[in-house]
Amino acid sequence: MDKIVSKQNLVPFVLITSCFALWGFANDITNPMVAAFEKIFLTGATEATLVQLAFYGGYGVMAFPAALFIRRYTYKSGIMLGLGLYALGGLMFVPANTIGEFYPFLIAYFVITCGLSFLETSANPYILSMGSQNTATRRLNLAQAFNPMGSLAGMFVASNFILANLNSKDKAARMELDPTEFEAIKTQDLDVVSYPYILISLVILTVLVLIAINNMPANREEDHGRAMDLGSIFTRLLGNRKYILGVIAQTFYVGAQIMCWTFIIYYGTEVFTARGMSEKDAQVLSQQYNIAAMVIFGVSRFICTFLLRYIRPGRLLMILAAGGMALTLGTIFIGGIYGLYCLVGISACMSLMFPTIYGIALDGISGDDAKIAAAGLIMAIVGGTFLPLLQAGIIDNWTFDFLSGPRASFVLPLMCFMIISFYGYKVYIINNEILKNEDS
Asked: 138: buried, middle or exposed (CB in 10 Å: 19+, 13-18, 0-12)?
């Protein structure tokens, strides 16, 4: 039976898997910053969600350049460049903090995500290549299982070292301050936001050095001496049903994930302020629920990796997407603390989705095709830009009394899970057709 990770690849596997945790940290320390920047800069939810537009926009811009870079060089080079850009973006919080305006922070987030785009475009297929093709999807799920650990660390830092230490004055109270007092509070809050990003940059530079000095396995396909025929590659990929549907499913999955983890703070704040809690305390407590969601997400990912030994990926994906739909309906229509429980529970259903969609979509694709295909799947993370903006628009502009804006806005994740469920169903049907053809 093929091993998930061979002994000779164990150290490289561990080092590359640490990158999964590092980008998980970046993703989930950043999601709560939408609410933080809304209060610090006195924006609406829609403008504050520009944090997500800048953060996830880097994936859309840099995924294909990253693929061409690793085609010219190696996966290791792509990972090192990604780590360097990630660290640079974190250090850019120093001048952004000094300037004290919103948009320099958006630039810093964009640079961070350009680095993450190189990291994910390189690391995901690199993990797939570190062993037998028969265990590739399980190997990627195992590596991805450490992503929530970084996410948990990011959430913990956001909750205990950022949200808890921001000035207690809520947005309405800040609007009443005189300019001098407002600027003093804003400067203090921006210091609180900036320090964790600066510190994680030093950690990233350490990991970069460790990867640089270690021998790493070569790319499986030693074909980087040949010219890449992009026209032929795109023609083949466009004719691959599983791949094209996978890119679409991945776009909506990432959108659902970011929406559920970003706007849980808005949802929870509405629940807890209705019980008489202050806005600051409600935000901090809501972030604790977000941490609970990530714990469930991480545990569920290990469970689902085990279940993949017995259940076909497409079928399990379809089942979990249906569960996500049911819990999202509870989030919308039950409301209150039980609606918040449903929102937390959605994370159990999401845990399998990214690596499984990724592995299914790349199944049977190799060589240069795999590098470009991987870039397309990473570019699909751009779903984390426009879908949260749409959700924020619903929150800001919802005027119907029968349902609050935060609750109504979760109709968008519901639609995403419907699309993912359809993809799981289509993959299940396609695989059954393949098996029938092999038997006949």
From this structure: buried
Which of 265, 249, 262 lies closest to 381 in space, CA to CA?
A: 249
Of residues 223 and 282, more confidently modeled: 282
**Cβ neighbours of residue 393 under 8 Å, at least 6 residues apart?**
46
Between CA 344 and CA 337 the distance in angstroms is 11
Give the tokens for residue 11: 């150290």
Q: What's the predicted TM-score (pTM) here?
A: 0.78
Type of residue at 224: H
Does residue 420 contact residue 252 with C-beta atoms inside 8 Å? yes
d(CA 386, CA 70) in angstroms, rounded, equals: 28
Instruction: Note whether residue 211 is domain-resident.
Output: yes
**How many domains are there within the chain?**
1
Angstrom distance (rounded) from CA 167 to CA 177: 13
> Mind listing the pLDDT tens digit for each residue in 357-416?
988 888 888 777 877 888 888 888 888 888 988 998 898 888 888 888 889 999 999 999
Return the SS3 of 167: coil
The residues, ordered by sequence, that sit 6+ positions from 205 with a Cβ below 8 Å of its Cβ are 83, 87
**Other CB atoms within 10 Å distance of the CB of residue 333:** 12
In a domain, 1, yes or no: no
Per-residue burial over 255-279, b = 16 or more CB atoms within 10 Å of its CB, e = otherwise:
bbbbbbbbbbbbbbbbbbbeeebeb
Is residue 48 in some structural domain? yes
pLDDT tens digits, 310-352: 888 888 899 999 999 999 999 999 989 999 999 999 999 998 8
Whether residue 341 lies inside any domain: the answer is: yes
Which residues span the domain enclosing 367?
7-221+229-439
Tokens of 101: 């305006």
Q: Alpha-carbon distance 264 to 411, whole Å?
A: 14
